[in-house]
Design brief:
Elements: E1 11-14, E2 17-20, E3 25-28, E4 31-33, H1 37-48, E5 53-55, H2 56-64, H3 71-84, E6 95-98, E7 102-105, E8 110-112, H4 138-150, H5 164-175, H6 197-204, H7 214-221, H8 223-226
Antiparallel strand pairs: 1-2, 1-8, 2-3, 3-4, 5-7, 6-7
Helix pairs in contact: 1-2, 1-3, 4-5
């Protein structure tokens, strides 16, 4: 059974996805997908052992490094990974749950030679808002930028599929330089329990927290607090 360890510099391809192990970057076509550091860590291990059962305890030990992780928190990252890997031609998804044991990557993985000019993730920092190609939305992006300079919070509303996330990401990309610690995209779509919002935030900011008081630890360990 081949694994990614046999191809240390290869690009791993499955379906429309490409995984760059050295950069720990995931692409769907030409689009760079934004994943938190621990979600990417889980994917890296599952791809490293594609087709094999990876026990839940092994994933936690390698990704969290000994931190106690509640079941709900762990499920948030698995759900986020499954959502990122959604693909209409892959019935049942790429991540198989083996009840009571762990998880298995079940897709067919190809190992491609690393390109001469390797793909570079569009996000410049872990969890950062990705650079997005937009056409005909300069006006609304400029409005969002202006409003964000006037108010701390801004909600963009509208029917599904009209590009709210694209506009928000575009605005934050333009404003990134105005914020000392950059801009981050935090996807809460897979979070179904409000108690796990802080865990998703910590993952996006690459802040190691135990589960006793995530929010206070995020505040204490955030880049602003450390500066």
């Amino acid at each position: 059974m081949e694994t990614s360890m046999d191809h240390p510099r290869a690009v791993l391809a499955f379906g429309p996805f490409r995984w760059l192990p050295e950069q720990r970057a995931l692409f769907k076509g030409e689009e760079s997908l934004s994943l938190g550091s621990r979600t990417r860590g889980i994917l890296s291990i599952l791809l490293e052992q594609a087709g094999q059962l990876v026990k839940r305890n092994e994933l936690i030990a390698r990704v969290w490094g000994g931190i106690i992780v509640e079941e709900g928190t762990f499920r948030v990252h698995i759900s986020a990974l499954r959502k990122a890997l959604e693909h209409e031609h892959m019935t049942g998804g790429y991540i198989e749950t083996v009840n009571g044991l762990g998880y298995r990557f079940v897709g067919q993985v190809e190992y491609l030679a690393a390109p001469v000019d390797p793909l570079v993730p569009l996000q410049e920092t872990i969890g950062a808002a990705s650079k997005t190609r937009m056409i005909g939305r300069d006006g609304i992006v400029a409005t969002v930028q202006q409003r964000l300079q006037e108010k701390r919070f801004l909600t963009i509303v509208g029917p599904g599929g009209i590009g709210k996330t694209t506009v928000a990401s575009g605005a934050m990309e333009q404003l990134r330089a105005d914020y000392t610690d950059g801009a981050y995209f935090i996807d809460l779509a897979s979070v179904t329990d409000e108690r796990l919002v802080a865990s998703a935030l910590a993952d996006a900011l690459d802040i190691a927290c135990d589960t006793s008081d995530d929010l206070n630890q995020i505040i204490e360990r955030s880049p602003t607090a450390r500066s």
